[in-house]
Specification:
- Helices cover about 35% and strands about 20% of the residues.
- The chain is built from 17 helices and 19 strands.
- The longest helix has 16 residues, at about 255-270.
- It is rod-shaped, with a radius of gyration of 31 Å.
Length: about 475
C-alpha cells in the first residue's frame, strides 16, 4: 500500500520551500496539484515521476486521484501553496480517507504560509495574538464570515485576511474595513502583499482609514494590526510587551485599569448615533463613560474646536492653572496628567479668606472662592461641577473685565439657577466653552471633561487612561 504526503510548498519562491518538502518531491512516484504550482518544484521532480495537474476548484478531483494512485502502491505528494493545512488540501485528504474507509498512510509536511511570508516582508506585524479569516464564501455563508470578522475586531486580534477579493466578490472587503473601523482607530496599521515571494511581489503599508480595497486582488494577503501595532520606518510592528511603544508614547504596557477604560471607550464609540468631530467626540466619550448616560449626545455642548484649543494652550504654556468651584472637582482631575503637563488645579473653598468675603458681601462661599481666584488667576480654565452661583459670578466678572478665562467648563447640577447659569456663559464667543446643558452635571462630570482636555493627544488613537 502506498502513502500520501501532503506538502505545503510555501508562498511561491523556491527558497521558501522547506528541505523536508523538497526531499518528498524528489522521492515522489506521483505529484498531484494545481497546475500553477508545478513551476515552483519542477527542478526537484525526478525523472518518470507522474505529474497530475488540474485547474482551480478541482480539489476533490485531485484528492481522489491521489488516493487512486496511492492504492496502486505509489508514494503520492499532494502539493498546496503555503501550508497545506491552512485553507489547503490537508483537511480534504483526511476527510476523504475517512469517507473512503481506507487505511492509506497520510502525513502532512508544513510549509511557510502566505501570511508568514507577508509578515516577514511587512516587518513584525504578528508579534502578538492573531487570527486568520478567509473572505471566500464558496463553502462558508457570509453571515458566518461576518460574525468572525466582528469577533476578531472586537477581540483586538492581529488579523490576516485570505481570499480578500475576486471578480464576483467585490464588496466583502469593504464590509470588513467598515466593521474594523467600528472597533479600531483609523490609524491602525494595515499591510498587504501581492504575490508574496514571487517576481511580481508588491508590498504596501498603510492605515485602516487609508486602506483602499480597490488595490487588492485574489493574489493578495492582508494583515491588519491590533491596537498596539504601529508603523516605524515603513514597517509594521506589533509589540509583545518587552519594551514600550516609542511611536505611541510608550503606551504598549497599559495597566489593567487602562485596558478596561480603552474597552469601555470602544464600546461607547460603537454605540454613538453619529460621527462627531474628534475633539467633541473625545469630550463626549469621557462624559458618557463617567455617567453611562447616552443622553450626553444631546446635552453636551462644545464650541467648535474647544477641546483642542484648550489642549494647545496647555502645550504652548499659556494655560497653567485650572480653577474649580468645589474640591470634589479638583479631586477628580488626574494628578498624573497635571504633573505630566505642569498644570496646577486649585479650589479656593478652603482658603481662610472665603468665609469672611462671603459674610461681608452676602454671597455664597463658592462665589467668594471664584472672586478670589479671579484676582490671582484671571486667565485660568474655570471648571464648575456643583455651584451655579459660582458660574454666574464668573460671568459677571467677565462682563466687568476682571476675568479673561482661557476656557470654561460649565457642568453645575441641580434645580435652582442651573439652566440660567449655563445660558449666561454662551454669549462669550471668544472663550472656548464646554457645557452640559440643562439640569444635569456634577463634580465627576466636570472633572472628566477636564481630563478630556488634558489627554486630547490620546484622542486620535482612542486610548484613554494613561494617567490612571
Amino acid at each position: 500500500m502506498g502513502k500520501i504526503i501532503i506538502a505545503g510548498i510555501g508562498p511561491g519562491s523556491q527558497e521558501d520551500i522547506t528541505p523536508a518538502v523538497l526531499e518528498a518531491v524528489r522521492q515522489a512516484d506521483a505529484i498531484v496539484g494545481y497546475k500553477y504550482y508545478f513551476q515552483f518544484i519542477e527542478p526537484y521532480i525526478k525523472e518518470h515521476c507522474e505529474c497530475i495537474d488540474t485547474g482551480m476548484k478541482k480539489e476533490r478531483e485531485r484528492a481522489e486521484q491521489a488516493f487512486d494512485l496511492a492504492e496502486q502502491d505509489k508514494t503520492v505528494v499532494v502539493i498546496s501553496s503555503g501550508d497545506a493545512g491552512i485553507y489547503g488540501m490537508a483537511p480534504l485528504i483526511y476527510e476523504m480517507r475517512k469517507q473512503r474507509g481506507t487505511d492509506i498512510e497520510i502525513c502532512s509536511l508544513p510549509g511557510i504560509s502566505a501570511f508568514q511570508k507577508a509578515a516577514s516582508l511587512l516587518g513584525a506585524p504578528i508579534g502578538h495574538d492573531m487570527c486568520i479569516i478567509s473572505l471566500s464564501d464558496l463553502m462558508t455563508p457570509w453571515e458566518t464570515i461576518e460574525r468572525r470578522i466582528k469577533a476578531a475586531a472586537t477581540a483586538d486580534f492581529v488579523t490576516a485576511v485570505y481570499n480578500p477579493k475576486s471578480h464576483e466578490r467585490y464588496w466583502q472587503l469593504y464590509r470588513l474595513q467598515e466593521l474594523f473601523l467600528q472597533e479600531h482607530s483609523g490609524d491602525t496599521p494595515v499591510g498587504y502583499v501581492r504575490q508574496a515571494g514571487r517576481e511580481e511581489q508588491e508590498v504596501k503599508v498603510t492605515t485602516l482609514a487609508q486602506f483602499n480595497p480597490e488595490d487588492i486582488d485574489m493574489f493578495t494577503v492582508i494583515l491588519i494590526g491590533n491596537s498596539q501595532s504601529y508603523i516605524s520606518d515603513g514597517k509594521i510592528i506589533t509589540p509583545r510587551g518587552y519594551y514600550g511603544n516609542p511611536e505611541r508614547g510608550d503606551r504598549s504596557q497599559e495597566k489593567p485599569g487602562q485596558l478596561i477604560m480603552i474597552q469601555s471607550f470602544r464600546t461607547i464609540a460603537g454605540e454613538l448615533r453619529k460621527d462627531y468631530p474628534l475633539d467633541h467626540q473625545w469630550a463626549l466619550l469621557h462624559a458618557i463613560h463617567t455617567t453611562a448616560d447616552f443622553e450626553m449626545e444631546d446635552i453636551l455642548y462644545t464650541d467648535p474646536g474647544a477641546v483642542e484649543t484648550l489642549y494647545n494652550k496647555i502645550k504652548d504654556g499659556t494655560l497653567r492653572t485650572i480653577i474649580t468651584d468645589v474640591t470634589m472637582v479638583t479631586s477628580g482631575i488626574r494628578k498624573g496628567a497635571l504633573q505630566r503637563l505642569g498644570i496646577e488645579a486649585k479650589c479656593y473653598l478652603s482658603d481662610p479668606r472665603v468665609a469672611e468675603l462671603a459674610s461681608s458681601y452676602g454671597i455664597t462661599r463658592t462665589q467668594a472662592g471664584i472672586r478670589l481666584a479671579v484676582e490671582e488667576h484671571p486667565d485660568a480654565l474655570f471648571t464648575f461641577g456643583n455651584a451655579p452661583t459660582a458660574l454666574m459670578e464668573l460671568c459677571d466678572l467677565i462682563r466687568k473685565g476682571k476675568a479673561r478665562p482661557a476656557g470654561i467648563i460649565a457642568a453645575p447640577v441641580g434645580f435652582v439657577h442651573v439652566k440660567e447659569s449655563k445660558h449666561m456663559v454662551k454669549p462669550f464667543k471668544d472663550i472656548p466653552k464646554i457645557i452640559v446643558e440643562g439640569r444635569k452635571g456634577g463634580s465627576n462630570l466636570a472633572a472628566t471633561l477636564c481630563n478630556a482636555v488634558l489627554t486630547f493627544d490620546d484622542a486620535a488613537l482612542l486610548k484613554p487612561g494613561r494617567d490612571l
